[in-house]
Design a protein that fits this description.
243 residues, alpha/beta, 9 helices, 35% helix
Length: 243
Protein backbone atom coordinates (compact mmCIF):
# COMPACT_ATOMS: atom_id res chain seq x y z
CA UNK A 1 0.00 0.00 0.00
CA UNK A 2 1.04 3.56 -0.53
CA UNK A 3 2.99 5.18 2.28
CA UNK A 4 0.35 7.86 2.74
CA UNK A 5 -2.51 5.37 2.96
CA UNK A 6 -4.70 6.57 5.83
CA UNK A 7 -8.03 4.96 4.97
CA UNK A 8 -8.92 1.44 3.95
CA UNK A 9 -11.53 0.17 1.55
CA UNK A 10 -13.94 -2.04 3.45
CA UNK A 11 -13.48 -4.84 0.92
CA UNK A 12 -9.72 -4.87 1.60
CA UNK A 13 -9.95 -5.21 5.37
CA UNK A 14 -9.73 -8.65 6.93
CA UNK A 15 -12.23 -9.78 9.56
CA UNK A 16 -10.61 -8.61 12.80
CA UNK A 17 -11.63 -10.19 16.12
CA UNK A 18 -8.64 -9.37 18.38
CA UNK A 19 -6.39 -6.32 18.83
CA UNK A 20 -2.77 -6.15 20.05
CA UNK A 21 -1.07 -2.92 21.12
CA UNK A 22 2.59 -2.02 21.28
CA UNK A 23 3.26 0.27 24.25
CA UNK A 24 6.22 2.68 23.95
CA UNK A 25 5.48 5.56 21.61
CA UNK A 26 2.07 4.07 20.83
CA UNK A 27 0.12 4.01 24.10
CA UNK A 28 2.68 5.81 26.29
CA UNK A 29 4.72 8.90 25.41
CA UNK A 30 8.06 7.36 26.41
CA UNK A 31 10.11 7.48 23.21
CA UNK A 32 11.05 11.12 23.81
CA UNK A 33 12.51 10.09 27.19
CA UNK A 34 14.78 7.50 25.58
CA UNK A 35 15.88 10.09 23.04
CA UNK A 36 16.63 12.71 25.70
CA UNK A 37 18.75 10.31 27.76
CA UNK A 38 20.66 9.02 24.74
CA UNK A 39 21.40 12.59 23.62
CA UNK A 40 22.79 13.35 27.10
CA UNK A 41 25.06 10.31 27.04
CA UNK A 42 26.40 11.10 23.56
CA UNK A 43 27.01 14.76 24.42
CA UNK A 44 29.79 13.65 26.78
CA UNK A 45 31.62 12.25 23.79
CA UNK A 46 30.88 15.30 21.60
CA UNK A 47 28.50 13.27 19.47
CA UNK A 48 24.88 13.84 18.49
CA UNK A 49 21.96 11.42 18.41
CA UNK A 50 20.58 11.13 14.90
CA UNK A 51 16.88 10.48 14.31
CA UNK A 52 17.76 7.81 11.71
CA UNK A 53 19.44 5.76 14.45
CA UNK A 54 16.48 6.23 16.77
CA UNK A 55 14.19 4.84 14.06
CA UNK A 56 16.30 1.68 13.90
CA UNK A 57 16.40 1.25 17.70
CA UNK A 58 12.66 1.69 18.29
CA UNK A 59 10.89 -1.51 19.28
CA UNK A 60 14.07 -3.56 19.77
CA UNK A 61 14.96 -5.42 22.95
CA UNK A 62 17.19 -3.29 25.20
CA UNK A 63 20.47 -5.16 24.70
CA UNK A 64 19.98 -5.34 20.92
CA UNK A 65 19.26 -1.61 20.76
CA UNK A 66 22.29 -0.93 22.99
CA UNK A 67 24.63 -2.87 20.70
CA UNK A 68 23.32 -0.96 17.69
CA UNK A 69 23.66 2.36 19.53
CA UNK A 70 27.30 1.74 20.53
CA UNK A 71 28.27 0.50 17.09
CA UNK A 72 26.60 3.21 15.02
CA UNK A 73 27.73 6.11 17.21
CA UNK A 74 31.36 4.96 17.18
CA UNK A 75 31.52 4.33 20.93
CA UNK A 76 33.18 0.92 20.63
CA UNK A 77 36.06 0.86 23.12
CA UNK A 78 34.67 3.88 24.95
CA UNK A 79 31.36 2.54 26.26
CA UNK A 80 30.12 -1.05 26.18
CA UNK A 81 26.45 -1.85 25.45
CA UNK A 82 26.10 -3.10 29.02
CA UNK A 83 27.59 0.10 30.47
CA UNK A 84 25.29 2.15 28.24
CA UNK A 85 22.24 0.30 29.58
CA UNK A 86 23.29 0.80 33.23
CA UNK A 87 23.79 4.51 32.67
CA UNK A 88 20.56 4.88 30.73
CA UNK A 89 18.66 2.94 33.38
CA UNK A 90 19.79 5.30 36.14
CA UNK A 91 18.37 8.28 34.28
CA UNK A 92 15.17 6.66 33.04
CA UNK A 93 14.18 5.22 36.40
CA UNK A 94 13.27 8.69 37.65
CA UNK A 95 11.57 9.75 34.40
CA UNK A 96 9.30 6.81 33.55
CA UNK A 97 6.73 7.18 36.37
CA UNK A 98 5.68 10.59 35.02
CA UNK A 99 5.05 9.45 31.42
CA UNK A 100 1.70 10.34 29.88
CA UNK A 101 -0.71 8.51 27.58
CA UNK A 102 -0.55 9.19 23.85
CA UNK A 103 -3.57 10.97 22.32
CA UNK A 104 -6.50 8.62 21.74
CA UNK A 105 -5.03 5.69 23.68
CA UNK A 106 -7.51 5.74 26.56
CA UNK A 107 -10.50 6.33 24.25
CA UNK A 108 -9.62 3.39 21.96
CA UNK A 109 -8.77 0.91 24.72
CA UNK A 110 -11.94 1.70 26.67
CA UNK A 111 -14.05 1.50 23.50
CA UNK A 112 -12.74 -1.92 22.48
CA UNK A 113 -13.03 -3.30 26.00
CA UNK A 114 -16.60 -1.99 26.40
CA UNK A 115 -17.56 -3.71 23.15
CA UNK A 116 -16.09 -7.07 24.13
CA UNK A 117 -13.11 -7.02 21.73
CA UNK A 118 -10.22 -8.97 23.32
CA UNK A 119 -7.15 -6.72 23.62
CA UNK A 120 -3.61 -7.14 24.90
CA UNK A 121 -0.20 -5.46 24.98
CA UNK A 122 2.93 -6.90 23.34
CA UNK A 123 5.93 -4.77 24.31
CA UNK A 124 9.71 -5.02 24.12
CA UNK A 125 9.89 -3.39 27.57
CA UNK A 126 11.00 -5.70 30.34
CA UNK A 127 8.95 -6.06 33.51
CA UNK A 128 10.87 -3.55 35.65
CA UNK A 129 10.44 -0.75 33.13
CA UNK A 130 6.85 -1.74 32.38
CA UNK A 131 5.93 -1.30 36.04
CA UNK A 132 7.55 2.14 36.21
CA UNK A 133 5.93 3.34 32.98
CA UNK A 134 2.42 2.19 33.89
CA UNK A 135 2.39 3.42 37.52
CA UNK A 136 -0.10 6.21 36.74
CA UNK A 137 -2.12 4.15 34.27
CA UNK A 138 -2.84 0.89 36.07
CA UNK A 139 -6.61 1.18 35.66
CA UNK A 140 -6.35 1.43 31.87
CA UNK A 141 -3.81 -1.39 31.52
CA UNK A 142 -6.00 -3.60 33.73
CA UNK A 143 -8.46 -3.72 30.80
CA UNK A 144 -5.97 -5.80 28.81
CA UNK A 145 -6.67 -9.54 28.62
CA UNK A 146 -2.92 -10.12 29.06
CA UNK A 147 0.43 -8.39 28.64
CA UNK A 148 3.53 -9.88 27.01
CA UNK A 149 6.82 -8.18 27.91
CA UNK A 150 10.27 -8.34 26.36
CA UNK A 151 11.71 -10.46 29.17
CA UNK A 152 9.01 -13.12 28.82
CA UNK A 153 10.81 -16.52 28.60
CA UNK A 154 8.79 -17.44 25.50
CA UNK A 155 9.94 -14.34 23.62
CA UNK A 156 13.25 -15.67 22.32
CA UNK A 157 13.98 -12.87 19.84
CA UNK A 158 13.00 -9.22 19.81
CA UNK A 159 11.19 -7.33 17.06
CA UNK A 160 11.33 -7.55 14.00
CA UNK A 161 11.10 -11.27 14.81
CA UNK A 162 7.42 -12.19 15.32
CA UNK A 163 7.92 -13.88 18.70
CA UNK A 164 6.20 -11.33 20.95
CA UNK A 165 3.09 -11.20 18.74
CA UNK A 166 2.86 -14.97 18.31
CA UNK A 167 3.07 -15.39 22.10
CA UNK A 168 0.37 -12.72 22.48
CA UNK A 169 -1.91 -14.58 20.02
CA UNK A 170 -1.43 -17.82 21.94
CA UNK A 171 -2.53 -16.39 25.28
CA UNK A 172 -5.94 -15.06 24.34
CA UNK A 173 -8.82 -17.12 25.68
CA UNK A 174 -9.28 -20.11 23.38
CA UNK A 175 -5.93 -19.31 21.72
CA UNK A 176 -3.93 -19.42 19.65
CA UNK A 177 -5.95 -16.94 17.63
CA UNK A 178 -5.59 -17.03 13.84
CA UNK A 179 -3.06 -14.25 13.01
CA UNK A 180 -5.26 -13.11 10.12
CA UNK A 181 -7.89 -12.07 12.68
CA UNK A 182 -5.48 -9.95 14.72
CA UNK A 183 -4.88 -6.23 14.22
CA UNK A 184 -1.64 -4.80 15.64
CA UNK A 185 -1.03 -1.12 16.47
CA UNK A 186 2.63 -0.07 16.27
CA UNK A 187 4.72 3.08 15.98
CA UNK A 188 8.10 1.47 15.25
CA UNK A 189 9.33 0.09 11.93
CA UNK A 190 10.71 -3.02 13.68
CA UNK A 191 7.33 -3.56 15.35
CA UNK A 192 5.38 -3.28 12.11
CA UNK A 193 7.74 -5.80 10.53
CA UNK A 194 7.29 -8.13 13.51
CA UNK A 195 3.50 -7.98 13.14
CA UNK A 196 3.67 -8.68 9.41
CA UNK A 197 6.16 -11.51 10.03
CA UNK A 198 3.57 -12.97 12.42
CA UNK A 199 0.97 -12.90 9.63
CA UNK A 200 -1.07 -10.11 11.25
CA UNK A 201 -2.44 -6.80 9.96
CA UNK A 202 -0.55 -3.73 11.16
CA UNK A 203 -1.59 -0.12 11.62
CA UNK A 204 1.33 2.25 12.01
CA UNK A 205 1.10 5.44 14.07
CA UNK A 206 4.57 6.84 13.35
CA UNK A 207 6.42 9.77 14.82
CA UNK A 208 6.04 12.57 12.23
CA UNK A 209 9.85 12.74 11.93
CA UNK A 210 10.08 9.14 10.74
CA UNK A 211 11.06 8.85 7.09
CA UNK A 212 8.01 7.91 5.03
CA UNK A 213 9.90 5.01 3.43
CA UNK A 214 9.25 3.13 6.69
CA UNK A 215 5.49 3.42 6.16
CA UNK A 216 5.33 1.01 3.25
CA UNK A 217 5.23 -2.23 5.27
CA UNK A 218 2.13 -1.20 7.23
CA UNK A 219 -1.41 -1.98 6.05
CA UNK A 220 -2.55 1.45 7.17
CA UNK A 221 -0.80 4.59 8.43
CA UNK A 222 -2.53 7.14 10.68
CA UNK A 223 -1.13 10.20 12.40
CA UNK A 224 -2.78 9.51 15.76
CA UNK A 225 -4.92 6.88 17.49
CA UNK A 226 -7.62 9.56 17.39
CA UNK A 227 -7.76 9.04 13.62
CA UNK A 228 -8.49 5.30 13.78
CA UNK A 229 -11.84 4.28 12.28
CA UNK A 230 -12.84 0.89 13.79
CA UNK A 231 -15.55 0.38 11.15
CA UNK A 232 -12.91 0.07 8.43
CA UNK A 233 -11.71 -3.10 10.14
CA UNK A 234 -15.10 -4.58 10.96
CA UNK A 235 -14.87 -3.44 14.57
CA UNK A 236 -17.67 -1.64 16.48
CA UNK A 237 -17.80 2.07 15.56
CA UNK A 238 -17.22 4.84 18.07
CA UNK A 239 -20.41 6.30 19.53
CA UNK A 240 -19.21 9.83 18.82
CA UNK A 241 -16.27 11.53 17.03
CA UNK A 242 -13.04 12.25 18.89
CA UNK A 243 -13.15 15.57 20.69
Amino acid sequence: MAANKCSLAAADAPSITHVVFDMDGLLLDTEKLYGEVQENILARYNKTFEWSLKAKMMGMKAIEAARLFVEETGLNGLLSPEEFLVEREDMLRTMFPACELMPGASRLIQHLHANGIPICVATSSHTRHFQLKTQKHGELFSLMHHIVRGDDPEVKQGKPSPDVFLVAAKRFEGGPVDPKKILVFEDAPAGVLAAKNAGMSAIMVPDPRLDSSYHETADQVISSLLDFNPSEWGLPPFDKPAS
